[in-house]
Each structure stands twice: as C-alpha cells, then as structure tokens.
Design goal:
By secondary structure, the protein is of the alpha/beta class. The protein is about 35% helix and about 15% strand. Strands 4, 5, 6, 7, 8 and 9 form a 6-stranded parallel beta sheet that branches. A 3-stranded parallel beta sheet has the order 1-2-3. The two termini are about 20 Å apart.
Amino acid sequence: MKKIDMHVHTVVEKGANRLGTNSTFCTPEELLDKYEGLGIELAMILPIVNPECSYGCNSNEEIIGIVDKYPGRFAWFVNVDPRAVDNSPDADLSHIIKYYKQRGAKGVGEICANLAFDDPKVDNLFRHCELNGMPVIFHISPMLGRFYGLYDEPGLPRLERALGKYPGVKFLGHSQPFWAEISADLDPNTRNGYPTGAVTPGRVVELMRKYPNLCGDLSAGSGFNAVSRDSEFGYAFMEEFQDKLYFGTDICAPENDMKLSHWMDEAVAAGKLSRRAYERIGRLNALELLK
C-alpha cells in the first residue's frame, strides 16, 4: 500500500543550516527520492511561517508553486501566524484562510507560535479555522520562551479547553510534549524528549476517547516513539483509534531516518496490526481529509 505523509516541510532553496548541524530542510526533489524507499505516494506540506521554529520561513505562495510543479505528489496546508494581520485577538484571519482555501489548502498548520494554547490570539485563530471548516496541526511546547510551539502544562488542560470550545475543528496533535502524555507516568522533566518503557494509558488516550475532534499526527520521532516504546500497547492504541490517527514523517533533513513506515509494514505482515487499521492510518484517513 502506498502511504500518504500528513506532515512534512520543504524548501525550494536551502538557507542557513540549523545551529549544530550541517543540514536544513529537504528540497522537493530530495523528499521524492526518500519517498521511493518509504512507499509514500503523496505528502502534505506544512509551511513554516512562525519565526520561533526556523532560520528561514516559507511563504504560502512558495508551497503552492511546489504543489503545482509536482501534481499528484504534494498537497498542502496554509499556515497563519496567530499574530498575523494586526497582532490582536480580533484580527480577521478568515480573510487569509478563505483565500488560501480557495487556492487548494486543506487545513491550517503546523502551528508553532510560542504562545499559550489558550492565548486570545491563538483562540482567535481556532475560531476562524472552525468558521472555515479547516483542520489544524499543532506543535506543543513545554514552556514559553526558548522553544517553539503552543505552550501547555502537563495534563494538557489548555488543549482540553480548546477541544471543548471548538468541536468543529479537527485538531491533529503532534510533538514530544503531546505524545509523552500517551502514558500516565509522565515525568515533567522529560516531556520534551522520548520516554521509554511500558505505557499506562494517559491523558492523550483519555482525551482522544472523550473528544471526537482530537486526532493524532504520528510523524517524527515523537509519534513513532509513542506507539513503539511499548509495542503491544502501540498496536492496541492504533486499533482503537485507527480512524483518528495519521501517518506522517516530519522529515526535516535529507539524512533523517524515519522508522514508522517500515514498522507499520512489518506489523501488518506479522498480523500484529489489522489490515484495516494499517490502511486507515497509512492512507484512507488522509484521503478523507483531502476531500
């Protein structure tokens, strides 16, 4: 089965390397080369517009150009900084979202602004996403300052308030602090890392059971770690929430080794993951969102 990658970033022209590395985001051509080995047919590009998380930002127009250049290989989300237009909690962000939705955007994100999850400007963005029927992909940060992503405390109380306030928004959760909450034995000191060991179902499980609009973005090391650290739990989690989980890579550099694709292939081949769950997570949920 060819998979759909719900979370990736790319640049037409490479800019400054990330500090401490010799790399930056892949070009579209580098991504397509990697996808050959991962069995990925189509990918959702998420523009980088929040300055907290990049040494250079994408324009939404740059991403439209990539999608147009490689028809059938890429789709895209529009990204809107919550501070856009006039840096206020009553900015008309629908003006932007409607325009890019007409240009083909399928959602909003990845939201990486380092603001509180319930900051009035973030709340305003969610309100306009709901008004325009747009799902969102968000990155959670462990703190305000020195990180990127929407801040929430352990236990994700601010996320829960948003889930209840905006039932019409499909929220796709992502990042280490989000996926660390899959287990009840969360250590606040390591929530921005990759916890190991057996999983006792935690807040992510509770919230996904309680709120129909909370979904999971399994991209990056954080998503893979969440389902693979305790594989028996991971298979059961993927079965239970197979209609709410999305395969993704979050490839951020050409040398990234993304393990989830082969792990899922091996799981379904060994009978540890049902064919239905494999197809829902790997492809069909994304196709429904694209429609």
